[in-house]
Design brief:
alpha+beta; four-stranded mixed beta sheet; 8 helices; 50% helix; binds glutathione
Length: 213
């Protein structure tokens, strides 16, 4: 399998952590992906092969062993989950699975808002919308409050909602234009303090994406 990848992308990190936790990381060949710095507001120039494989031209994109392109982090995680069976990141229990997906969607919403803010901040200052940035900040705060309230759900065997929450909190810590998530959220803070030390999290700490020409 081949994975279009950057070290900065939280959606890509989701796949990398999931693959490590599932024990299938060694079956993935990484294809480092670059784009011109103006990708946030113009048509980006991507690493060769990405737009051809996936016209949405976003990362992560996985080319499976059967040569099929999967262009969405959650679909990729589900594919890896099937490959790794019986090991898995989706609870067997009916209700636990619903709660997992509910928390997952909220954590994934944080990633979407973070990535949307990043793209907006890459635009020239005179084109940026403070209203748009505020909307994303408010969404992130609401989602983190929800996850704080449901923090007990994050205990137990590792699943996809834990991974996505851990990555959202890690991204919040990494970018200096995002707020510290800890004040008023003691449960999330103490959970993340333990989760961030997992080998899969340590091995995938975010770094700036090198730019291409
Ligand atoms: N829903 C997608 C979102 C992927 C996404 O937004 N990726 C970002 C990087 S973190 C990207 O490729 N942005 C480039 C662009 O939108 O042009 C997923 O879960 O994979």
């Amino acid at each position: 399998m081949q994975l279009f990848w950057t070290p900065a992308s939280p959606f890509t990190r989701k796949v990398c952590v999931a693959a490590r936790e599932l024990g299938v990381w060694n079956r993935i060949e990484v294809r480092p992906t670059t784009w011109t710095l103006d990708w946030g507001y113009k048509t980006p120039k991507f690493t060769a092969g990405l737009a051809e494989a996936n016209p949405v031209a976003r990362i992560p994109t996985l080319i499976t062993d059967d040569g099929v392109a999967l262009g969405d982090s959650t679909l990729i995680c589900l594919h890896l989950n099937e490959l790794a069976s019986p090991r898995g990141l989706i609870p067997e229990d009916w209700l636990a699975r619903q709660r997992m997906w509910s928390n997952f969607a909220v954590a994934d919403g944080v990633l979407e808002a973070q990535v949307a803010m990043r793209a907006e901040l890459l635009r020239p200052e005179h084109l940026r919308s403070e209203d748009f940035l505020d909307k994303q900040r408010e969404r992130i705060a609401r989602c983190l409050d929800f996850l704080e309230y449901n923090a007990a759900d994050l205990e137990g065997p590792i699943d996809l909602s834990q991974i996505t929450t851990g990555i959202a909190l890690g991204y919040q810590d990494w970018r200096d234009w995002l707020q510290d998530f800890r004040p008023g959220r003691p449960n999330l803070a103490s959970w993340y303090d333990r989760f961030k030390d997992r080998d899969s999290m340590r091995a995938t700490e975010p770094r700036e994406t090198p730019t291409g020409d």
